[in-house]
Design brief:
- 2 copies of one chain form a homodimer.
- By secondary structure, chain A is mainly β.
- Chain A has one domain: Tachylectin-2, Chain A.
- Helix content of chain A is 3%, strand content 51%.
- In chain A, the strands form 7 sheets. In chain A, strands 18, 19, 20, 21 and 22 form a 5-stranded antiparallel sheet that branches. In chain A, strands 1-25-24-23 form a 4-stranded antiparallel sheet.
- The longest helix of chain A has 6 residues.
- The interface between A and B is large, with 44 and 44 residues.
Chain lengths: 347, 347
């Protein structure tokens, strides 16, 4: 199979991104939702930032505070034995976990799909109690004149998925929490199927279950039910630790083609593909036996959180797709593929 | 406040319940949903059973197997260091947790609300992959001629909430998984509010969030969205560990009165009350400062899992309610209360 990672990857790096405020530094630009508008490719970037910290004895966490309607900075002393600092992404006590970075969403645009102009200001920024620890991993579909965006919001309440809509990527309207915690990787199908909307989702359960891929249906995009688990972990394969939807599925004659992410138990994230039945999308017809894209280049193997390739969107152009993906939770890369090549490689 | 626990509590004990098959023993009858039908009070009992085990060196777990469409018994050697047997309710490895008992739902009927006739056969029994570890904690509402039952189903997929309906408590139709894992304590309001159905629910999150009470809305009882957290843990009170809805809310002039459960960090479960706004039920107007019902009697303090009172339903009769509750995850008790007494006691 011909997999052409773009020669000049990563196409967007943190040095190109202006922080949202002068006392913050950008630590990641990754996991972008994709859309086309006015002959341009739009990426809705996830940008993670943290307060600039010159004091090595402590770790800072920026959190949205609804009382002040602004971010506040919490300070944790590294010598405080009540907290664990082992994972650089989190600060954790038995009672509560905090994130060491806070994400927002920002727009970037390109004519050719490789060279992007990144806006200076956030498009969607934490602004309610469900978003206190940041908003992450947008996926975009278009229905009539509206773009609908799902994204994961983290807070003291857990991880919910919200829905927002926009016509122009300038003005956004939030439509509430559409999946209860914990649930992320929510990807709505671009078309109704049998009169209903469908979405892939990834609940995280507290004890009995595993982080696997589910589907739900909705009459109105806001209310979701009919939850079914459709894809489980596979022992010994690239998705034996966790898996979830990635890009918005594309319709092919053979079925819905979904580019998803799978991770091993030791957190190596790869992209895989699966084919879902056109009329009964809860039926998985085929699935990648081996990763479609795996971390192999330096920018994919090391960074804020290394050994990660993770996609929230692709752009289809005839028989070809450009898959945009986050590399090492730090930068954005792109890979060009032929749809038939992917389909022919499924088991 | 006048709280009259019925003198002859518990009103239903395991000795009165016939096991669903001869090689099983009943270990609990508790957490019953409530309804009235043909001038009778109907309890939909949660009955937990386990395979009779004479071998003290092992622990057994009954699990529904979809390939055989029947229960199978799994055997765990107590000396197997891959598993923990510390909590008598579960068998746990790092990879997977199993339950030492499996629950089904069964009908009991009474004319006077105290003396119940219990059916010999299950009403709802595990029959699909989401119910592999059992079905639990039913709540019942009536809309027109249909009784709608929410219940929690446990399996390798986590804990989902399903919806079923019946007209006669003999024939039941399952309507699918209405809340994704993990979610339990789903209680639908008996009336629509502003044209929408509402339900209280209790997601369990994997890392950031806490086991707290949420609300969701639905156009059709099957699809749910608009998730909001409405009641949080309260440090130092009876609900500082977890809380969730209990009985179906009843409408009063002051608001929706909800009898809920709160547990301390060391798993003492009490009943509390809260008052929700009639038109905007996501607004908590008042809440019990102290438990309404707490474990004090022997049958509430010791049993399969002691120090637990837990309600799934009540029966209103004019100004009074009978709250049915599970005691120590083993038997069913009832307490009579005056609604005004509860309302006057809220803060």
């Amino acid at each position: 199979m011909s997999i052409i990672k773009y020669q000049k990857n990563p196409i967007i790096s943190i040095s190109q991104v202006k922080p949202s405020r002068p006392d913050f530094e950008v630590v990641g630009v990754f996991n972008a939702g994709t859309a086309t508008m006015n002959d341009e490719i739009v990426l809705l970037l996830r940008i993670s930032e943290r307060p600039i910290n010159t004091d090595k004895t402590c770790v800072l966490a920026a959190v949205y505070d609804k009382n002040t309607d602004d971010l506040i900075t919490m300070k944790f002393d590294k010598s405080d034995e009540n907290y664990s600092f082992d994972d650089s992404r989190i600060i954790s006590s038995g009672e509560q976990t905090y994130l060491t970075s806070i994400s927002h969403l920002r727009v970037a645009k390109s004519k050719n799909g490789y060279d992007f102009e990144i806006e200076d200001k956030p498009a969607l920024f934490p602004q309610n109690e469900y978003e206190a620890f940041g908003i992450e991993d947008p996926r975009i579909i278009k229905i009539d004149d509206d773009y609908y965006i799902t994204f994961a919001s983290s807070s003291y309440c857990g991880v919910v998925t919200e829905l927002a809509k926009t016509k122009d990527f300038k003005h956004f309207e939030r439509l509430g929490n559409i999946f209860a915690p914990d649930n992320k990787d929510v990807v709505i199908f671009p078309d109704k199927i049998g009169g209903m909307h469908y979405a892939l989702h990834r609940p995280s359960t507290s004890a009995l279950g595993k982080p696997e891929m589910w589907i739900a249906s909705s009459p109105d995009l806001v209310s979701w039910g009919g939850h079914k688990r459709i894809a489980a972990l596979r022992d010994g394969k690239f998705d034996d630790g966790r898996l979830g939807a990635g890009a918005v599925p594309i319709k092919t004659e053979e079925g819905w083609l979904e580019i998803y992410h799978g991770a091993t138990k030791d957190n190596c994230y790869c992209l895989g593909a699966m084919l879902l039945d056109l009329e009964e999308p809860w039926k998985v017809l085929k699935r990648s036996d081996e990763p479609l894209v795996e971390p192999s280049e330096t920018y994919e193997k090391s960074g804020f959180f290394g050994n990660v390739v993770f996609s929230c969107g692709l752009i289809q152009s005839g028989d070809f797709i450009k898959i945009y993906y986050g590399a090492s939770d730090e930068s954005i890369a792109v890979v060009d593929m032929k749809i038939d090549d992917i389909l022919n490689n499924l088991k």
